Amino acid sequence: MRHPAGRILILLGFLAVLVPCVAHAQALQLKPTPKTIAWGYYDAKTPPVLRIHSGDTVEIQTLITSSPERLEGAGVPADRVEQSLRDIYKEVKDKGPGGHILTGPIYIESAEPGDVLEVRIQKIRLAIPYAYNGFGPGRGFLPDDFPYARMKIIPLDETRMVAHFAEGIEIPLHPFFGSMGVAPPEVSGRISSNPPWIHAGNLDNKDLVAGSSLFLPVHARGALFEVGDGHAGQGDGEVDITALETSLIGTFQFIVHKDLHLLWPRAETSTHYITMGLHEDLNEAAKLAVREMIAFLMETKHLSRDDAYMLASVAADLHITELVDGNKGVHMSIPKAIFAAPK
User: How far apart (Å, rounded) are the C-alpha atoms in residues 233 and 244?
Assistant: First the structure.
């Protein structure tokens, strides 16, 4: 009997045709306000701000992770600071232990612990024409080398899709959400938005751009999806603890899979399958990513354990996704092109 997880490739192929038939013709919208965000945490007991059904599509706006005062102090004109950000900083008192302003949570009807929530990232666009990068004492990967604070405002050119970092330096934009996750198990209580874990959260995986899908193990009824930490671009590792931090608007489709079961988040782009390892020790994170890739290849490509290990060695790549937020992140990607299409 085929393992249920082995059907993932077949499901992905025909869900693109079937699911839109039951989805809403027009996406729902969720904007960040003092009543529609969770500031710095994931928690199974957080009341949902929106309830949807599997197959529904939602356009979600997220906010830059910075105070209005810091942005203005770094050179952003007062009229360029979003009013919603001002409202949230003024009105929201229940926050922490993390620092991210996350839009949500969204309750997906029929999602139960043990299911898998597929988050299809359909579109991502910029919400503001600037980003920032900054570091501070005691933070980042080299805290002893940079024991002071600095913040830089970086203009974004949406027409050309580049960031003007400095004279003669332009960075291509690849917008993605640094934090996408569901509630952790209820016994975990409120957990910080900073370290990624089994619920996903602050993955900081720059491959999760528009056109990719994130597969999340569901730990609480309704899944309770939250998203934030918008990035216009980032280098793997995010070594100074920030990327091109900005506000984004994303369009997501949510699909509950009852016959898939995962222990850790996985992802799929237009070109690659991705497994992830998240652990406070970088070596252990890498081992998790490799073991998850072996499991994926066994489940979906029906390889023996030995052949899966060998294929991972000759065809898959390891990348350091996350170095600076508690748990380290490593993801392993394998190209789809190496697999012959079924005859």
Answer: 5
**What is the Cα 112 distance to its own chain's centre?**
21
- How far apart, in Å, are the Cα atoms of 307 and each of 9, 280, 329? 19, 29, 25
Q: How far apart are CA 331 and CA 234, in angstroms?
A: 15
256-288 tens-digit pLDDT:
999 999 999 999 999 999 999 999 999 999 999
Domain assignment present for 236? yes
Tell me the whole-structure pTM to 2 decimals: 0.90
Q: Residue 269 is encoded by which pair of tokens?
A: 């782009």
The whole-angstrom separation of Cα 288 and Cα 282 is: 10
Q: Where are the alpha helices (DSSP H) in the chain?
A: 8-18, 68-73, 83-91, 282-300, 305-315
Q: What is the CATH number of the domain that holds 79?
A: 2.60.120.580
Provide the Cα torsion 122, 127, 132, 133; round to 10°. Answer: -10
What is the number of domains present in the chain? 1
**280-297 tens-digit pLDDT:** 999 999 999 999 999 999
